[in-house]
Amino acid sequence: MGDGSLALGRAHQTSSMKLAMYRRLLADRRARRFLAGLGVSSLGDGLSIVTIPWLAVLAAPAGDSGVFVGIAVAAYTLPGVIGAVLLRRYLARRPAREMVLGHAVLRAGCIGLIAILAIASALPPYLYVALLAGSSLLYAWGNAGQYTMLSSLAGPDGRLAVNSLASAQVSFATIVGPVSAGVLLFVLSPGALLALDAASFAVLGLAAWRTRTDAGPTEPPVDTDAAGSGFRLLRRRDLLSLTVVTWLFFFLYGPVEVALPVYVAHDQAAPAGLLGAYWTSFGVGALVATLVTGALRAGNMRRTTLLIVVGWGACLLPFAIAPIPVTVISFALGGLIYGPFIPLTYALFQSATPAANLPAVLAARSAVVMIATPLGTAIGGPLVAGLGASGTLGASGIATIALAAAAAVLWPEDGERAVDSQSQETQGEARIAP
What we know:
By secondary structure, the chain is mostly helical. It has helices at residues 2-27, 29-59, 65-75, 79-86, 88-91, 96-119, 125-135, 139-154, 159-184, 190-210, 224-233, 237-267, 272-292, 301-316, 324-338, 341-352, 358-369, 372-387, 389-410, 415-432.
């Protein structure tokens, strides 16, 4: 009884400390302004989840909608990887707020031009793809600048809290944005909605420029120097297994982003509101899962991760045969299952890697994993053209389940426990080192 009361008291104290940190952050005018800018741009991104692929469906050349949607969605993300590497020499030493501003200006300009051309019915397919690609060129740098500014605004004690506030806004936008886009597309054109998205990035750029912090230059989002040694460490069987599982899981998710809008528009002949309903249901499930992830038991995270992979794959199977209400519920359940995957896999890396090597390993992981979903999205176009949208969704589910089955055999179960002990020993040595 005494131990239980003590634990309850500690939990209450921890909760009070977190609430106090949230209050302190929201009372800070600079943090409040920057978080508001991030929130507005997150809502714009939420609208674009539906609007960008929907406009791609409308703008696609006749008979090539699946391929074109895949190219367009990939163009909105993949060039960010290229920019992270090729622009390192020019951007690595710039102040963080200039990185955020540059990304916001580029997004607003390119998407705004798409909106103007779409409203004027003068948007050729190739130019749509080119402008989407241009808008994403600074994405990785903008993201790096964003988290550097948040860290500086919050200080060491408030970083987790401020990151949580920013992530909560993204989750909320994932819920509200798609359903809002689905409703608004009944009365507004896709070009008009993209104009709102462009304006949201202009708000972010203004907020970043007006928010002065002590944040100086930041490291590039993919530190290729650190990644060099990290790649050698990733060859260890347990880390390599986890990296391969993560990469393939994200890769197999990629075709879903292409197939789903085609499934709604062509297979079901439904309006954009249904696409918004799918992504909103997914966002609700993912948000709930994110909130409860901390309550998951720490034991055997490998098994939990594999169950997530199986569960997500199973949630895609109904698209091959089931009616719309069943698939909406299944997609919501998929979000609930998918949500904890990222925090769990990061926890596995942390427990399986000595502290001294963790930065290099995570840098290498980022360099490898960052391109998985865009490549999966790019391959989704030809798959939709060959299998159809419902067939692609079902095939993605079957392949994901097969991935979990293969990983259960090939991914060593005892690597986490063995190396976790090694990590603790390394941390102990670091504490007594001069």
